[in-house]
Specification:
By secondary structure, the chain is an alpha+beta fold. It contains five helices and 13 strands. It has one domain.
């Protein structure tokens, strides 16, 4: 019995030795190792999250720049599209001195729409001047183009809508402004109708039925210093469109298009020389190098920009006789990230044509974009075989 009792006691002793817990030192070592592993995992997670966040900022910034360039390029490519209308100064079949050649100051892009203001001469000047550029808000547009960002340009683009009124291209709206040109051979290519009603004057090819009408488009692009709320600090490319609102026609309040556009500059390529090198001269009938085949006019443009591109500014505003010869446009855009990156300081300078922006020495990332766009509807009229 005693031996059995001793065996039980020894068994319990061995069990207690086997089941004993960690020592304090072992526990502290294990906690330390665990904390090191957790800290490493947290650091890795934060690095990955920061990298993804910065990548998202960069992607958004680049996407904003690309989309803005696409919008502007597409708009400029349609500038001067008036279907069959052709100003006399670009009509190479004309044998007399061209009439109605715009000179002096270009048309006011925001002139209030009234019969007294919108005279036939003013409306014709709108068609003949496809693009206008300013480095400040034009005086007549001050009530519409508000909060313009400093050191950015204002671009005006005009053309007829490229599609006819339809459910997919804007329904025919009574009271809206529409453009009509003629395809009837007995009417001059310089005839047009720009009005809100009627549309029976310009005839189709059969010279009997009215020709199709297209909506008049006049878009003004500029960069304002906020996106949704005044003072939010997000520079944004905005557009004001000529349209009908509340029964009245005019340039409508700007609509925000693309956030993060901080710089915007526009330069024009002017066609002021003929292919023979002679200066363009609209004060006389077209002169030809060979009067028998009339393939090379000596005093009309050839559709290509001559010399350096020009920038229209308050100090040197572009005149109407310059703008009617604009055949190419260079656009420069500076895109800025919406949010700051504390670890980044932008100490670079950005060249936008003849202007330099920066260094900003802030924590926003930026990227510059540029493109050249041919005004096909203007330059194409001057191409000769």
């Amino acid at each position: 019995m005693r031996g059995s009792h001793t065996l039980v006691i020894r068994s319990h002793a061995r069990s207690r030795r086997v089941q004993r817990g960690l020592t304090l030192i072992e526990l502290m070592v294990s906690i330390t190792i665990t904390l090191i592993v957790v800290a490493a995992l947290i650091a890795l997670f934060l690095n990955v999250s920061n990298a993804q966040r910065e990548m998202a900022k960069i992607n958004q910034q680049i996407e904003s720049g690309r989309v803005s360039m696409f919008v502007l390029e597409n708009e400029i490519a349609h500038a001067g599209f008036w279907e069959n209308y052709m100003p006399q100064f670009d009509d190479l079949t004309l044998t007399t001195i061209p009439a109605n050649v715009p000179t002096g100051a270009p048309p006011d892009p925001c002139l209030a729409y009234t019969p007294a203001n919108w005279t036939p001469g003013y409306m014709r000047s709108l068609l003949d001047v496809a693009v206008q550029v300013y480095d400040a808000v034009p005086a007549g547009c001050a009530a519409v183009l508000k909060n313009k960002k400093a050191n950015t340009d204002v671009l005006v683009v005009r053309h007829a809508e490229t599609c006819l009124p339809s459910p997919t291209c804007g329904v025919d709206t009574p009271g809206a402004l529409y453009f009509q040109s003629s395809t009837c051979g007995t009417q001059k290519p310089s005839d047009f109708d720009l009005s809100t009603a009627g549309f029976a004057t310009m005839l189709a090819r059969n010279c009997t039925t009215p020709s199709p009408k297209r909506k008049f488009v006049s878009d003004i692009y500029y960069v304002r210093d906020y996106a949704d709320t005044v003072g939010d600090g997000i520079p944004t490319l905005a557009r004001s469109r000529f349209d009908l609102s509340g029964g009245a026609l005019g340039q409508q309040p700007p609509v925000a298009l693309i956030e993060g556009i901080e710089g915007f500059r526009v330069e024009l390529g002017l066609d002021t020389l003929s292919s023979t090198g002679a200066a363009v001269d609209y004060t006389k009938a077209t002169s030809w190098a060979d009067a028998s085949n009339r393939s090379t006019p000596t005093d009309r443009g050839d559709g290509s920009p001559d010399g350096a591109f020009v920038h229209c500014s308050a100090a040197a505003p572009c005149t109407a006789d310059q703008l009617i010869n604009a055949v190419a446009v260079k656009i420069y855009v500076l895109a800025r990230s919406i949010e700051q990156t504390p670890s980044h300081t932008d100490s670079r300078s950005y060249t936008l044509g003849g202007a330099t922006l920066g260094p900003f020495n802030d924590h926003y990332k930026r990227h510059a974009f540029s493109s050249s766009v041919r005004l096909n509807n203007v330059a194409g009229r001057r191409d000769t075989p």
